[in-house]
Design brief:
The complex is a heterodimer.
Chain A lengths: L46 E3 L5 E3 H8 L24
Antiparallel strand pairs in A: 1-2
Chain B lengths: L3 H18 L8 H11 L7 E4 L8 E6 L11 E6 L10 E4 L29 H13 L9 H9 L1 H12 L3 E2 L2 E2 L6
Antiparallel strand pairs in B: 1-2, 2-3, 3-4, 5-6
Helix pairs in contact in B: 4-5
The chains are: A little secondary structure, B alpha+beta.
């Protein structure tokens, strides 16, 4: 029997390489969702991974870090927040 | 080739067009979203009640604490909460609306709780604040006082302090200051 494929539709999904259901500790929205100021998830609203092992929406974390009261500390563990460069992931 | 990018652009254009037309729609702010989530996760127990004077405004509410043990047992203590638009990056502003005798609450109602000030961080939620507030009534803390006289009393003589608390709660006078009656 010969099967002829006339048409096919590719469908792709994506999610961040994070455990599912995990939320950003700052806005409490899932990592695969957006921070409160963005409308579209994905590259427009990426995540930031800290060396301390805590991750947040980049926009959420930057808003915190830019605030003087944050003293540059991770909102989760109060260690100095330094982000992992993408090549050390 | 998949046209995800152009689709995204179209989507964005549509959004922008909508934004121009439908500006009357009230925008839900980040602070409101986060407060909504916090309220859903709240566990008040039977010693605390929350009321919203304006049901349309979830950023301003009152909390009443009725400690069921400790030296403040039998009292009803009311606090106003004001959450600003920078929440959760800024802590909520909490004030006691009564004049009470407590080492960590001054006569104007300002509350001294570390997580409301220097130790606030955006991963804390309203539940953490509320638990902290309740703890102040179970375990008043003399080492970081706002009402220095009350703290001194607590340090010097715990039993005398307890008596002062009872007097103040029934609307009596302690060290020439008359307090509000807060008993149920």
């Amino acid at each position: 029997m010969k099967v002829k494929i006339k048409e096919w539709n590719a469908i792709a999904t994506w999610h961040w390489d994070m455990p599912e259901d995990e939320v950003c500790g700052i806005c409490r929205v899932q990592f695969d969702g957006t921070c409160p100021t963005c409308k579209f998830p994905g590259d427009d609203c990426s995540l930031l991974l800290g060396k301390c092992g805590h991750s947040f929406h980049m926009h959420c974390l930057l808003q915190w870090i830019q605030q003087e009261t944050s003293k540059g500390l991770c909102p989760m563990c109060r260690q100095k927040f330094e982000w992992k460069q993408s090549d050390e992931q | 080739m998949l046209k995800i990018w152009s689709m995204k652009q179209q989507q964005q254009q549509a959004e922008n067009a909508e934004g121009g037309a439908g500006k009357k729609k009230k925008k839900v702010t980040a602070a409101q979203l986060r407060v909504q989530r916090d309220l859903q996760e709240l566990t008040l127990g039977n010693t605390m009640k929350m009321t919203f004077p304006n049901p349309d405004d979830i950023l301003n509410f009152t909390l009443s604490i009725e400690p069921d043990e400790g030296m403040y047992k039998g009292g009803v203590f009311n606090f106003s909460f004001a959450v600003n638009q920078n929440f959760p990056h800024d802590p909520p502003k909490v004030k006691c609306t009564q004049k009470i005798y407590h080492p960590n609450i001054d006569l104007e109602g300002n509350v001294c709780l570390n997580i409301l000030r220097e130790d606030w961080k955006p991963v804390l939620n309203l539940n953490a604040v509320i638990v902290g507030m309740q703890f102040l009534f179970l375990e008043p803390n003399a080492s970081d006082p706002l009402n220095k006289q009350a703290a001194e009393d607590l340090r010097a003589n715990r039993e005398a302090f307890k008596r002062n608390v009872r007097t103040s709660m029934s609307g009596g006078t302690v060290h020439n200051i008359t307090f509000e009656r807060v008993l149920k």
